[in-house]
């Protein structure tokens, strides 16, 4: 079923919730379309996208990265989980900053992103992100028939269709999110 799996051995995610952290498992249990989502165990030292794709033979253009962006206006900080293809870059200081109604936006510091999501750095996923965060998705990610995304830990990856990703609470397509 998964043409992008390379040498991965994906299994239905709901049968292996032990391969994801608690916030991700909780979100998957209520996600419409979770029966179309898979998870695969990986070597955690190979979680970074380029190394992962090279080792497991998964196409780089089928990988989507989740970046946590913090936007500030005065004393107010707003966060967003932003999904872009691994071959593209998120427009943090343009499109994302405006969407967050912030004067200044930047990638959230690693320790902050980890503490706020309950996930491991290098494995952060929009699945199970804090409920009050928007999940900003590039049109390319939303339209993808198959994607490989983080699972919340470095020891596994999630395989998910873009249309199922768009069923996450707070998910919205943001044109020109990535370049």
UniProtKB/TrEMBL annotation:
Superkingdom per UniProt: Bacteria
Q: Which residues form the YbaK/aminoacyl-tRNA synthetase-associated domain?
A: 44-168
Concerning Gene3D superfamilies, the annotation shows: YbaK/aminoacyl-tRNA synthetase-associated domain (3.90.960.10)
Q: Which InterPro entries match?
A: YbaK/aa-tRNA-synt-asso_dom_sf, YbaK/aa-tRNA-synth-assoc-dom
Signal peptide span: none
* GO molecular function list: aminoacyl-tRNA deacylase activity
A Pfam family reported for this protein in Swiss-Prot or TrEMBL: tRNA_edit
Name listed for the protein in its UniProt record:
Cys-tRNA(Pro) deacylase, prolyl-tRNA editing enzyme YbaK/EbsC
């Amino acid at each position: 079923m998964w043409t992008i799996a390379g040498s991965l051995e994906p299994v239905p995610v709901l049968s292996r919730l032990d391969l994801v952290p608690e916030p991700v498992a909780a979100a998957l249990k209520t996600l419409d379309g979770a029966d179309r989502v898979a998870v695969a165990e990986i070597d955690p030292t190979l979680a970074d996208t380029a190394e992962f794709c090279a080792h497991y033979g998964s196409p780089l253009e089928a990988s989507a990265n989740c970046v946590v962006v913090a936007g500030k206006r005065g004393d107010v900080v707003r966060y967003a989980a932003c999904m872009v293809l691994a071959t593209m870059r998120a427009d943090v200081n343009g499109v994302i900053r405006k969407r967050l109604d912030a004067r200044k936006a930047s990638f959230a510091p690693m320790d902050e992103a980890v503490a706020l999501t309950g996930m491991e750095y290098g494995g952060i996923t929009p699945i199970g992100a804090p409920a009050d965060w928007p999940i900003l998705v590039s049109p390319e990610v939303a339209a993808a028939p198959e994607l490989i995304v983080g699972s919340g830990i470095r020891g596994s990856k999630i395989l998910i269709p873009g249309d199922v990703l768009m069923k996450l609470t707070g998910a919205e397509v943001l044109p020109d999110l990535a370049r």
